[in-house]
Amino acid sequence: MKIFWYVSPVDGPYPWKTEGRLPPDHRKLVSLARTIDRLTFAGALFGTYGHDVWTTASSLIPVTEKMRFLIPIYPGITSPRLLAQQALTFDDYSNGRLLLNLVNGTDTVLAQYGLHVPHDERYELSAEYWDAFRKLYTGQAVVHDGRYFKVSRNREIEGPTSLPVPPRQHPYPPLWGACASPAGVRHAAEVVETYLAFLNRADRLEGQFTEARTAAAQRGRSIDAGVALWIIVRRTEREAQDQLRWFLEQTGPDWIRHQVNIDLRRALGPEVSLDTFNNEDPQLQRRIEALRAGRIPDLEDLRLGPYL
Questions:
Q1: CB 208 within 8 A of CB 219
Q2: In which order are the strands placed within the sheet that holds 4-7?
Q3: Which of 64, 126, 165, 291 is most buried, with most CB under 10 Å away?
Q4: How many other C-beta atoms are found inside a 10 Å radius of the C-beta of residue 64?
Q5: Residue 251 and residue 107 in one domain
């Protein structure tokens, strides 16, 4: 089992809200990276708040030796050729410690970067993007003429490769990704090496992983699986629960409701919202009704299992 930590320039008691953030401090990032590198963590996922993620990660290469850098990528925002060049350069300087995290994003986020692709086409674009990236990273003299991307070979470079930096990872940096919808699971089965799910009950996680692995096997592939989760460490379970309750109170039901709506649209489509969504699971339905009423759900209605 590999355990990754999380690195973001934006941190604090509850940094998802402005009042819960501390001022960014690069010295703290350096200290955190050194600690991750010294302990038994495999690496860290990098957050996308504000600061450019490539610049942030690159600044921590010289202070680490083993830590792997899991960098989130929105397919299509950067050309596949430029991403291949960035990845080859990062791997060259870090001695092959790069991992890539597939983020398909939402319409509002992608529009900020000038990418306007209908929701139903996003997975098709992503599949083409990663196919072109892999060919470029591995040094194939690629001329890609696809529906979304057109990449020509650099004629100034002699030899069989398309880029002047040789690959450090073979065949290419592993791609990770979390996709919850049925279409997203099928897409992940096609393109990722590690399929990520958000923490849930054990039976639901097992079903989700089985679905992803079965879909991958149908394509002649095998994939690893991982879970994205929070941990709260306290001396007793009661103290940990009190801390969780404090997090929820500081966050507030309005913000939680807003975020749940974003997650519902991402997983189930742009027409779905908390006002119309219902679930047969009584526990989940109680959470929905609490948020509709402007209340934070009771902790028992959030419980997935012991200490969970």
A1: no
A2: 4-7, 43-46, 68-73, 98-102, 175-178, 194-198, 224-228
A3: 126
A4: 19
A5: no
H or E, element range at 305? none
Same-domain pairing of 62 and 131: yes
- Report residue 154 CA to chain centroid gap: 31
> Are 45 and 51 in contact, with CB atoms under 8 Å apart?
no
Residue 292 lies in a domain: yes
| Cα within 13 Å of Cα(246), Cβ side | 10
Cβ contact 5:36 at 8 Å: yes
Residue 158: predicted pLDDT: 52
- Verify that 129 and 245 share a domain, yes or no: no
For residue 93, pLDDT beyond 80? yes
Read off the pLDDT of each residue in 76-87 and give the average, rounded to a whole number. 91
Is the pLDDT confidence value at 161 over 70? no
201-245 pLDDT per residue, tens:
899 899 999 999 999 999 999 999 999 999 999 999 999 999 999
Q: Which of 228, 260, 288 is the last residue of a domain?
A: 228
The pLDDT tens digits for 266-294 are 777 788 899 999 999 999 999 999 999 99
Is 307 within a domain?
no
Same domain flag for 199 and 111: yes
Q: How many domains does the chain have?
A: 2
Burial bucket for residue 102 (CB in 10 Å: 0-12, 13-18, 19+): buried
What is the DSSP pairing of strand 194-198 with strand 98-102? Answer: unpaired
Read off the pLDDT of residues 15-65 as tens digits, 9 standing for 90 and up. 989 999 999 999 999 999 999 999 989 999 999 878 999 999 999 999 999
Contact 175, 148 (CB under 8 A): no
Q: Are 136 and 80 in contact (CB under 8 A)?
A: yes
Nearest to 228 by CA among 197, 192, 205: 197
Are 80 and 150 in the same domain?
A: yes
One domain for residues 194 and 168: yes
Are both 125 and 252 inside the same structural domain? Answer: no
